[in-house]
Amino acid sequence: xxxxDVSALTQARLGTSLTLNVDTGPQCLDDLEVxxxxxxxxxxxxxxxxxxxxxxxxxxxxxxxxxxxSFDFPVxxxxxxxxxxxxxxxxxxxxxxxxxxxxxxxxxxxxxxAWLAIPMKPLCHSNCMGxxxxxxxxxxxxxxxxxxxxxxxxxxxxxxxxxQS
Length: 165
Ligand SMILES: [Zn+2]
Ligand SMILES: [Zn+2]
Fold this sequence. Notes:
Elements: E1 3-5, H1 7-10, E2 17-24, E3 27-29, E4 32-46, E5 49-63, E6 70-84, E7 96-97, E8 103-105, H2 107-117, H3 153-164
Parallel strand pairs: 6-7
Antiparallel strand pairs: 1-8, 2-4, 3-4, 4-5, 5-6
The structure holds zinc ion (ZN) (2 copies).
One zinc ion is lined by residues 64, 66-67, 69, 123-124, 128.
């Protein structure tokens, strides 16, 4: 579970803290699948809310932009966010809040941090060979004939010229 009962904190005095242990298997964070979530988060009662601080380790399933293979991408999600307590005025846009029955759900925050952790161009390995542009072979695991005779359109027209003369 990544939802926690924080009723012990909502009535507590400022500075009171609680450790939220996150330890799950595969999870679906809305539109994002993660292999696991693991970490210890500090939840601290602050003015008007609960501050959560800590790091959650996770693993995202990504697709390599070069070879299109899927691979596991380990990430460390740093959390530092104040969840507003119910009945403490209007929530600002995009802010997090404790539910009316004193539950704190870390899933939306973890999802947001996980999306931020995804690289612009995910690569399975920094030296991924990618796919052969002609036959589509995955050059990480196989070699193909066209690899040695690289097709270049400029060569083809030159060859035509030579054949004509
Ligand atoms: Zn790759
Ligand atoms: Zn090829």
